[in-house]
Amino acid sequence: MIITIDGPAGAGKSTAARRLADLLGFELLDTGAIYRAVTLAARQKNVAPEDDASLKHLLDQTRIELRPGEVLLDGEDVSSEIRTPEVTAAIQGFADSRLVRKIVTEKTRQLARGRSVVTEGRDQGSDVFPDADCKFYITASDEVRAARRHAELLAKGIRIGISEVLSSQRQRDLQDASREVGKLVCPAGAIVIDASRLSEDEVLTKLIEYLPRGIRPLDPRDHVKSLANDYLSQGDPLGWFDALYASAHRDTSKIPRADRRPNEHLMDWLDRQRIVGDGKSALVVGC
Ligand code: DC
Fold first, then answer.
1. Which residue's CA is the nearest one to ligand 1's atom 2?
2. 221 vs 92, which has greater pLDDT?
3. pLDDT band at 287 (very low <50, low <70, confident <90, very high)
4. On the CB side of 185, how many CA atoms lie within 13 Å of its CA?
5. Please, which residues have CB within 8 angstroms of residue 245's CB and are 6 or more apart in sequence?
6. Predicted local distance difference test score (pLDDT) of residue 62
7. Is 231 in the pocket of ligand 1 (CB under 6 A)?
8. DSSP, res 219
9. Which atom of ligand 1 is nearest to the CA of 6?
10. Cα–Cα distance between 43 and 49 in angstroms, integer?
């Protein structure tokens, strides 16, 4: 089962894709993160985007993995490094390279094979998965996107004028829309969502509304099971715990155990042990 979400930078598609994947118990493929990881790897080894032979060699030797909330390059977590301004500024050459696009496209298809995924990028519904089960295109006005980006930068302490953000965003849009392969287009058959006046919750509600019949949000307990199985299959039996809390964004309804009631098995055990708590002190370990 494949759901694609494409759209320009800053329209809110990454958040929407992550929340939709969490809600459905699908895996998230953030393909922008793959292009970022390729760019970081090439910069670390001084490989230029035009040097196909060295790029191919490098990418044959490099392991890029997407984990919930993490991007690994040869096993090392590079989630922050791939989002530095230096990497962002250097992506274009690599995202324009036919060779890189071919390799990333193959990798994305391979990651999705036999799985249920929400895949997010610029060309997912058009080039990578033209036969996807459901395609979305999330966009927003230039001004709204620039204002959001500007607020994000200010929050990070980066002082920059909004007109500068707007002009660099227009340049990125132009790059994304004019590359020879994998350019940003609204894919045929995609449901278009204009997020200019919608909150993150409203975007999510719309996505759910337009999902094909048969794809429904998971019961939170099934979500936990699916998350735990994902991590187990990666040899990390405890990893799901942090991912669950991070993905809940402080919404306790998404954490099935956090129901603020004593666990029935514990109550039963206490009864059987004839342990009476009245007048006693206890150290409680749990949540
Ligand atoms: O979504 P993002 O900003 O993390 O993407 C990083 C860069 O990768 C951006 O310049 C567009 C490019 N990209 C692409 O060309 N094709 C994709 N499927 C995803 C991202």
1. 32
2. 92
3. low
4. 14
5. 255
6. 96
7. no
8. P
9. 18
10. 9
